[in-house]
Amino acid sequence: MTQPPPLPPQEPQPPQAPPPRAQQAADRARQHVTEQTRTYPCGSCGAPLAFSPERQDLSCRSCGRAYPIELDPSATVVKHDLQTAMASIASGAVGLASVGGDEHEVVCQSCGGRTVFNGSLTATRCPYCATPIQRDDIQDSPERFALDAIVPLRVGEPQAREAIEKWINSRWFAPREFKKYRTLGSFTSVYLSYYSYDADTTTGYHGQRGDTYTVTVGSGDNRRTETRIRWRPASGVVRNTIRDLPELSNTGMDGGRIRELEPWPIQTAVPYSPEFVAGHLSRTYDRDPEDVFAREARPRIDSQIETTIRRDIGGDHQRISSKNTTYGLLQFMYLLLPMWLLTVNYDGKPFQVFVNGLTGEVQGERPWSKVKIAAAVIAALIVICVVAYLIWGRQ
């Protein structure tokens, strides 16, 4: 019987490389194509995972299992030329498409409940089962700028609540009802959208330098010393280097209070990964980088330039009659910054209090209690009257 020819020797196959870390993160998320959303179920028990600020990982509150977030070491934070971005906005290639004020309803893939995304909200929790849900159609839209980076949340809810309570309790004249924020208000973690600007400027200026001097004038009883200013022309060229200037790109927030949370450690930002947002609210931008630069960043840069000019002029007083600034570098980065937001509706008006999600610093607005203020005024008047009576009695 004829034997079949022997099989050729098999060449050893090289071991397969593990998938990239970015792919591992994508595999961990459950993509819901029909709803254009993603969730993060636990691989052990199926419960939703959420990013833990304290542990810096994805954690399951049900079974306690944790999943590390491993970023691709070759990934870098990218910055963009603002002029190129402005051209893209002018051509309509990117901008604010598909968000402005609309509502988007999705079906939760865990419980079947319906969740509504309003406006620029891109990540939330299902109100029925608390499953973190992220919209993919906004962040992946070719008509919008892609996220470049994120500074992950580091202040957990217990620390944030402690900071809020300490801040509220120190507001002596806040209404008693306002201090019951646990039942009156909404307290949640949120990532807000920011642009971080870099600029190298060269400014030529003309102005005057003023030096003070004193002279003695008059005679006799009218003899006195007067301070005068001696002015002389001044001109020159100054250069400014601005790095990581953060500007909020969301609307509906108290921008002045939020700015008081600065400085932000922009240099610690890492390439954006949606895992950092799991379990927390997140908003995409409401304003484009051109508008934010013109209205917010440019005035702050001009203020820094003016300070540099005055320092260059020197003297006791400075006058700036003209200046001309050119930009050798002007670029931006689109990123998310974390904070905790308390919103309390009191007497028909919303009051917002913000906690820096990295340092725990608190800034916000509070109402004033008319009753407490009136009581304090009456108490002060009583003290004044008693003191006046005692003084009058001694005299």
Attribute tags:
395 residues; alpha+beta; 13-stranded mixed β-sheet; three-stranded antiparallel β-sheet; membrane; Replication restart DNA helicase PriA; transmembrane helix; transmembrane
Q: Averaging pLDDT over every residue, what do you get?
A: 82
Report the radius of gyration as a whole number of Å: 30 Å
How much helix, percentage-wise, in residues?
Answer: 10-25%
- Strand count: 18
* Number of continuous helical runs: 8
Q: Helix/strand-derived class?
A: alpha+beta
Measured distance between first and last alpha carbons? 140 Å
- Biggest pleated sheet: 13 strands, mixed
Order of helices and strands: HEEEEEEHEEEEHEHHEEHEEHEEEH
Percent strand equals 35-45%
Shape estimate: flat
Low-confidence stretches: 1-5, 10-19
Please give a structural write-up:
This protein is about 25% helix and about 35% strand. The protein is of the alpha+beta class. The chain has a domain of about 250 residues. A hairpin with a 6-residue loop joins strand 9 and strand 10. This is Replication restart DNA helicase PriA. It comes from Gordonia liuliyuniae.
Fold blueprint:
Blueprint: H1 21-28, E1 30-32, E2 37-39, E3 49-52, E4 57-60, E5 66-68, E6 80-81, H2 82-91, E7 103-107, E8 114-118, E9 121-125, E10 132-135, H3 136-139, E11 149-150, H4 157-169, H5 181-184, E12 185-217, E13 224-248, H6 255-259, E14 270-271, E15 281-283, H7 289-313, E16 317-346, E17 349-356, E18 362-364, H8 370-394
InterPro entries: Trm112-like (IPR005651)
Region (Disordered): 1-34
Organism: Gordonia liuliyuniae
